[in-house]
């Protein structure tokens, strides 16, 4: 049985970041990353659909410690993947990664101050021992995307594809494509496929807020040229953090004004007389769900030049040749793409026990967005939903390392968050209206309504708490029990 100080689950953007901070701040600690797939990169290696790109700028989606050097702020997956793998190479992280190792479950022993982790590798069951378990596997199932039940699906004689499982040999040249969905994946696919397809139709049940943004950040590129890579990147990062927060705050405080402004921008990018309200004016307020960014207005360009169109309607049934809508209209298709979302799955689907008692995640409460009530020496990485994911992950990793330092200085072997008030009111962990979140809301941890039990989505507040605030708290229970040596 292999024994390490910290076992990191996942070699994507969060796991790579966790490894970097752990090496930097605790070079004497041993760690291993367990990755269920055969490559680093997580999402950016898994998804292969046309045009896949970030929906956040890379000056904030990138790591604070590693400047983003490409001129494109909204970047394609290949560039992001190269950036992540360069981070791995530069810091010697790959030697600590075990590929094709899928974590099944973990059992904590307070007497030993250790996790015993069961892992499946090439059909064999292995066991690892660790003082800390750090889950960095993201928030969705890697092996299965979400597809609702569609009446008549088996009747369709063409090809049905989910973006999470894109066939490498899919040829859509000159073909009629219907993309079901209106989120970030759909608005990425439409302009990319429209370049060579016969025609692409985005079929949505209801509209999503879509906002054109420049693919290149002129300020960032100028700052880098004048100030150098490191200082220019740091300045652009600060500017974009402030900009993201300002946009989100404006939308939350003045939803009517934000709705008017977004509509005005959309209308200016679309042909005269286009039914903007029908296809691009949602019923919900801006940023109640994530705003979809389209670089250089490519979606609107595809609509304007006739290579793509948007239809807002509900599906009655699939037919042999396409889709029949509730309005009676029929959409012919050679290929149907179900860009219908993800299946939320926190912590990689692993099961936990603490001193023999199973952990019901739905009954736990998140502490500072990094630990769970009642679960010792367990940390997880979950980024922002209203800003760049990695901004929060970086702060969480810094706080985790500060917590380890505090435990070393005081001889503590393990720590667990405990609710001071067991009757404290709670609410869903993610206060977010997206369908993929709502489908899983009863299966994931909760958050409190005050103090460290809130799942904050504000970088300024988190920087004060996680980077500069104390690591001790009345909600934390430390123990100085000496762990038993693992043979």
UniProtKB/TrEMBL annotation:
Kindly give the InterPro entries that the UniProt entry links to this protein. FAD-binding_MO (IPR051820), FAD/NAD-bd_sf (IPR036188), Flavin_mOase-like (IPR020946)
Among the Pfam families in the record, one is FMO-like
Q: Give the required cofactors.
A: FAD
An MF annotation (GO) of this entry: flavin adenine dinucleotide binding
Any keyword Electron transport?
A: no
> Sorted alphabetically, which keywords does the UniProt record give?
FAD, Flavoprotein, Monooxygenase, NADP, Oxidoreductase
Q: Which residues does UniProt assign to the signal peptide? A: none
Q: Which family does it belong to?
A: Belongs to the FAD-binding monooxygenase family.
- Quote the protein name from its UniProt record: FAD-containing monooxygenase EthA
Query: Lineage from the top down?
Result: Bacteria, Bacillati, Actinomycetota, Actinomycetes, Mycobacteriales
């Amino acid at each position: 049985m292999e024994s390490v100080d910290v076992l990191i689950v996942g070699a994507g953007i969060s796991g790579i970041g966790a490894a970097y901070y752990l090496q930097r701040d605790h070079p004497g600690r041993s760690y291993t990353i367990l990755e269920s797939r055969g490559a680093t990169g997580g999402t950016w290696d898994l998804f292969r659909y046309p045009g896949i790109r970030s929906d956040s700028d890379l000056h904030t989606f990138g790591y604070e410690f590693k400047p983003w050097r490409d001129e494109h702020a909204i970047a394609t997956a290949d560039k992001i993947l190269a950036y992540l793998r360069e981070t791995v190479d530069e810091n010697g992280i790959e030697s600590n990664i075990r590929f094709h190792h899928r974590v099944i479950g973990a059992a904590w022993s307070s007497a030993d101050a250790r996790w015993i982790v069961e892992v499946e590798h090439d059909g064999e069951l292995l066991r690892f021992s660790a003082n800390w378990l750090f889950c960095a596997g993201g928030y969705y199932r890697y092996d299965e995307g979400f597809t609702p039940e569609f009446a008549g699906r088996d009747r369709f004689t063409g090809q049905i594809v989910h973006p999470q499982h894109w066939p490498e040999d899919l040829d859509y040249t000159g073909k009629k494509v219907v993309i079901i969905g209106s989120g970030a994946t759909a608005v990425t696919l439409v302009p990319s496929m429209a370049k060579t397809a016969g025609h692409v139709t985005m079929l949505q049940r209801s509209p999503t807020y879509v906002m054109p943004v420049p693919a290149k950040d002129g300020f960032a590129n100028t700052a880098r040229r004048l100030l150098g890579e490191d200082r220019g990147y740091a300045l652009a990062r600060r500017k974009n953090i402030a900009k993201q927060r300002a946009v989100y705050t404006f939308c939350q405080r003045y939803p009517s004004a934000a709705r008017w402004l977004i509509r005005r921008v959309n209308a200016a990018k679309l042909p005269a007389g286009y039914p903007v309200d029908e296809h691009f004016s949602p019923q919900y307020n801006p940023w109640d769900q994530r705003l979809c960014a389209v670089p250089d207005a490519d979606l609107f360009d595809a609509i304007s030049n006739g290579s793509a169109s948007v239809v807002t309607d509900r599906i009655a049934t699939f037919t042999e040749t396409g889709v029949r809508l509730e309005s009676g209209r029929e959409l012919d298709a050679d290929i149907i793409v179900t860009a219908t979302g993800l299946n939320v799955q926190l912590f990689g689907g692993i099961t936990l026990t603490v001193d023999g008692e199973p952990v019901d995640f739905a009954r736990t409460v998140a502490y500072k967005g990094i630990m769970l009530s009642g679960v010792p020496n367990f940390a997880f990485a979950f980024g922002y939903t209203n800003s760049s994911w990695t901004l929060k992950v970086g702060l969480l990793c810094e706080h985790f390392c500060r917590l380890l330092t505090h435990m070393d200085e005081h001889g503590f072997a393990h720590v667990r968050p405990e609710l001071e008030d067991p009757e404290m009111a709670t609410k869903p962990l993610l206060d977010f209206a997206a369908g993929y979140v709502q489908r899983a809301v009863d299966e994931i941890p909760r958050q409190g309504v005050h103090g460290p039990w809130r799942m904050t989505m504000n970088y300024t507040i988190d920087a004060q708490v996680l980077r500069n605030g104390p690591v001790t708290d009345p909600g934390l229970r430390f123990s100085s029990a000496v762990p038993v040596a693992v043979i």
